[in-house]
Write a structure and sequence with these properties.
It is a single chain. Among the domains are: about 90 residues, D-Maltodextrin-Binding Protein, domain 2 (3-Layer(aba) Sandwich), CATH 3.40.190.10; about 200 residues, no CATH class. It is elongated and about 95 Å long. The two termini are about 25 Å apart. Strands 4-1-5-6 form a 4-stranded mixed sheet, with no helix packed on it. It has a two-stranded antiparallel ribbon with strand order 2-3. The chain has a two-stranded antiparallel sheet with strand order 7-8. The protein contains 16 helices and 8 strands. Strand 2 and strand 3 form a beta hairpin. The protein is of the alpha/beta class and about 450 residues long.
C-alpha cells in the first residue's frame, strides 16, 4: 500500500509528466548548447597595437609597416614604431585599442612575448597570435638553413592523418569504434546515474521530513512497522525514477531516429542508392566543393553512428538499470536516515555532506576514467559501492571484464543490504524525535540502543 501510494502520487503530478516528455530534449540541450556557445565566433572587432623591437615580424610596403600575422575579419593589427611601451600604460582605455603586443628584440632566444591590456585578453585572441608567431619563427629558423623552395616543400609535406579505431572481438571479427563517442556515452551514463540518485534520493528525504513535520508519521507508525514505511517510500520513489527513465529511453529513440531520418537520410540508403548518389556527383549534377564538404560531414556522422553500433545497447541499458536501482537504494536509505533525524529541510545541511561527498568524488574520478578506464584509480573506485554506480558506468562502454562487473555489483548489493539494516534501526528512532538538532554522534547512539 505504501509503495502504491508513493508511486501513484508522484507519477500523477504534472511536473512528472512534463519532465518525462521534455527530459531527452533537456539532456540534448545540456550537451549541445555548451558546444554551440563554445564554437560561437566573437564578432566584436578588436585592434591590437604591435611594438616589434625585433623587427622580425614587421613587413614594409607602400602603405607603411604591417604585422606579418594575418588579420582576421574581427582582429586587426597596427604596427607602431618609435613609441615606448610605457606610453600606453597610463590611460590605455581611452585609446580604444584592445591590447598591446610587445615583441622584445631577443625573441628568438627568449621565445617569449608580452601582451598588455586593462582587461583579461580572450584565449581565442592569445591563441591565434601565439600560433601565428610560432609558425613565423619556424619559417625564419628554416630559412636560416638556406633551403631552396622552402615554402613549396612545407606545403608538400603538410599531411592530415585520420586514425580509425578498430576493435577485435573475441570471435576474431573487427568492429570500428570512436573513442570520443565511447567517452561521450560513458560520461552521459555516469552523469545520469549521479542526477537520478541525488534527485530521487533527496525526494525520499523530503517526503520523510514532510510527514514528520506534519505529525502524520505518528499515525502511520501505529499501523505499520517503521522499517516497512521506510522501504515502502524508498521503493515507491525508486519505481517513479525507473518509470521516468524508461519513458526517456522511448522518447530518446524516437528523437534520434527522427533526427537521423530528417537531417542524414544518406545513412539509411542502400548500397545501390549510394552508388546512384555518387553517379550524380560524377556527372556534375552537384557542386564539387559543396559535395566534398557534405561528404566530410556525412563521414563524421556515419562514424558516430557506426561507433554507437559498437556499443551493445542491451548491456548499457541493463548496466544502467542495475547500478541505478541498487545505487539509488543504497543512497535512498541514507537519505531516509537524514530525513528522520531532522525536523526541517534547513537542518539537513549539516548532515547531508558526508552522504553526497562520495557521489561528488565519483564525478571527479569519472573524468579520469574517461582518459584511462583501466587505470588503478578508476578500477578501485568502480569497486567501492559508494562510487561504483557513477564510475563503472563510464568504464562499461570501453569494455570491462565480467569478473570486475560481477565483483562491483556484488559489493554494491551487499553494501545496500547492510546499509538498509543500519538505516532501519536508526529510522525507527529518528522519526519520533522532535525539537532537537541531531548530529552523527547522536545517530550513532540510536544505532547502538535500537534493538
Amino acid at each position: 500500500m505504501i509503495i502504491r501510494r508513493e508511486y501513484l502520487t508522484r507519477i500523477r503530478k504534472k511536473s512528472f509528466l512534463i519532465m518525462s516528455i521534455l527530459g531527452p530534449f533537456i539532456f540534448a540541450a545540456y550537451v549541445l548548447i555548451p558546444m554551440y556557445f563554445a564554437t560561437m565566433e566573437d564578432k566584436e572587432e578588436k585592434t591590437v597595437v604591435v611594438i616589434d623591437d625585433s623587427k622580425l615580424f614587421t613587413q614594409y610596403g607602400p602603405q607603411g609597416p604591417s604585422f606579418v600575422v594575418p588579420e582576421t575579419e574581427y582582429l586587426k593589427f597596427i604596427i607602431i614604431e618609435g613609441v615606448s611601451l610605457e606610453t600606453y600604460q597610463a590611460g590605455f582605455d581611452e585609446t580604444g585599442y584592445y591590447a598591446v603586443l610587445f615583441i622584445p628584440s631577443n625573441i628568438l632566444a627568449s621565445e617569449s612575448s608580452l601582451i598588455y591590456s586593462t582587461n583579461q585578453t580572450s584565449i581565442e585572441v592569445t591563441g591565434y597570435i601565439k600560433q601565428s608567431m610560432e609558425e613565423e619563427i619556424e619559417h625564419l629558423k628554416l630559412a636560416s638553413h638556406d633551403i631552396q623552395d622552402i615554402e613549396q616543400i612545407l606545403m608538400e609535406v603538410e599531411t592530415s592523418l585520420n586514425v580509425r579505431n578498430i576493435k577485435w572481438t573475441k570471435d576474431g571479427k573487427t568492429q570500428e569504434s570512436n573513442t570520443g563517442v565511447i567517452m561521450g556515452v560513458g560520461y552521459l551514463g555516469g552523469l545520469m546515474i549521479f542526477f537520478f540518485i541525488f534527485f530521487f534520493g533527496s525526494q525520499v528525504m523530503r517526503g520523510v521530513i514532510e510527514e514528520k513535520t506534519s505529525r502524520i508519521i505518528e499515525v502511520i507508525v501505529s499501523s505499520v512497522r517503521p522499517f516497512q514505511l521506510m522501504m515502502g517510500k524508498i521503493i515507491g520513489v525508486g519505481l517513479t525514477g525507473l518509470t521516468q527513465f524508461l519513458i526517456w529511453i522511448f522518447f530518446s529513440f524516437i528523437l534520434i531516429t527522427g533526427l537521423k531520418a530528417a537531417f542524414f537520410p544518406e545513412l539509411n540508403q542502400t548500397p545501390t542508392e549510394q552508388v546512384v548518389s555518387s553517379d550524380l556527383f560524377d556527372s556534375g549534377a552537384m557542386n564539387p566543393a559543396g559535395q566534398a564538404m557534405m561528404d566530410e560531414e556525412l563521414d563524421m556522422v556515419e562514424e558516430i553512428f557506426t561507433s554507437l553500433k559498437s556499443i551493445n545497447p542491451a548491456v548499457m541499458i541493463g548496466s544502467f538499470l542495475f547500478y541505478f536501482i541498487f545505487g539509488y537504494l543504497l543512497y535512498a536509505a541514507m537519505f531516509a536516515v537524514i530525513g528522520s533525524a531532522v525536523d526541517n529541510e534547513t537542518d539537513t545541511q549539516q548532515l547531508i555532506l558526508p552522504v553526497i561527498l562520495p557521489l561528488i568524488l565519483g564525478i571527479y574520478v569519472m573524468l579520469s576514467a574517461m582518459n584511462n578506464p583501466d587505470g588503478p584509480l578508476p578500477f578501485w573506485f568502480s569497486m567501492i559501492p559508494f562510487t561504483s554506480p557513477v564510475v563503472m558506468m563510464v568504464r562499461i562502454p570501453f569494455g570491462v571484464p565480467w569478473w570486475q562487473v560481477a565483483l562491483s555489483g556484488s559489493l554494491l548489493v551487499g553494501t545496500f543490504i547492510g546499509m538498509t539494516w543500519v538505516a532501519g534501526k536508526v529510522y525507527r528512532t529518528g522519526i519520533l524525535m522532535y525539537g532537537k538538532k541531531n548530529n552523527y554522534r547522536e545517530i550513532w547512539k540510536w544505532l547502538r540502543y535500537s534493538s
